[in-house]
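Try this one yourself first.
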């Protein structure tokens, strides 16, 4: 069964939802085979695979390239791709053109864009043009310069109220799901109760409908993972040990052997 945005949205109040990021076909295939319903080609691509310090330098071409690879590895999961910084903020026309390329050229099923109440007109326009949108509120990594760092949102009464308005605005604009990043747990839980589409949290406590993790954090490939990320494997150690064994075998002649 291929997941669609409406089917994903219908998971609200039925089950807790596990979402993961992926950036290439090999990992996407494994995640898909494990039954994850939604794979996000996050612009965390910039930090995880491209070696940038933030997501700001990531280009649309880079997202298209990696999204195509993920799509080729996936049979069932809904593939959502991030529109990177300054590929949708300038105008609604720019957003439709960028998002359209993700669906037409890379084969994505939907896009994710950052921003709450102020982004609602863009979300509405995308949805009206046949492009499913996952919204992203709370800590917005593309606004790290304006926010003055990666800070937990919703800690004051005003900011909590604004986040609730953000969630309702993106829902009314037609988003099929909302990522809530880096937000006080009680605020994320209240938002989750107040809207009818699934909330997917990251660093936002346990009260969301689902959780998303960056696959590199889960696999133990991130040198300094965020404190909320649970590591389910230690692949850095595994890779170092394997590469070291290979190097020693080549140097000693044990591999390929026979000579
Ligand atoms: O870019 C990304 O991976 C994301 C998730 C952290 C939600 O936006």
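Now uncover the answer:
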């Amino acid at each position: 069964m291929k997941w669609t945005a409406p089917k994903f949205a219908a998971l609200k109040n039925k089950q807790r939802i596990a979402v993961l990021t992926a950036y290439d076909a090999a990992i996407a295939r494994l995640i898909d085979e494990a039954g994850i319903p939604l794979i996000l080609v996050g612009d965390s691509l910039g930090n995880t695979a491209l070696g940038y310090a933030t997501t700001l330098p990531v280009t649309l071409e880079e997202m298209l390239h990696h999204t195509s690879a993920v799509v080729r590895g996936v049979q069932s999961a809904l593939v959502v791709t991030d529109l990177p910084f300054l590929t949708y903020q300038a105008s609604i026309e720019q957003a439709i053109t960028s998002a359209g390329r993700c669906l037409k050229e890379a084969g994505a099923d939907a896009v994710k864009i950052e921003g709450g109440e102020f982004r609602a007109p863009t979300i509405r326009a995308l949805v009206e043009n046949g492009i499913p949108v996952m919204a992203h509120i709370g800590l917005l990594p593309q606004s790290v310069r304006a926010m003055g760092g990666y800070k937990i949102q919703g800690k004051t009464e005003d900011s909590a109220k604004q986040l609730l308005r953000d969630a309702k605005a993106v829902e009314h604009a037609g988003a099929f799901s909302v990522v809530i990043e880096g937000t006080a747990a009680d605020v994320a839980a209240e938002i989750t109760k107040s809207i009818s589409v699934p909330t997917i949290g990251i660093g936002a406590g346990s009260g969301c409908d689902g959780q998303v993790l960056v696959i590199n954090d889960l696999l133990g490939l991130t040198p300094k993972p965020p404190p909320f990320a649970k590591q389910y494997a230690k692949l850095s150690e595994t890779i170092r040990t394997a590469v070291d064994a290979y190097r020693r075998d080549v140097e000693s002649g044990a591999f390929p052997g026979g000579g």
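Discussion: Strands lie at 17-21, 38-41, 78-82, 110-114, 133-138, 177-181, 199-202, 210-213. Residues 21, 40, 42-44, 82, 179, 181, 202, 212, 214 surround 3-methyl-2-oxobutanoic acid (CB under 6 Å).
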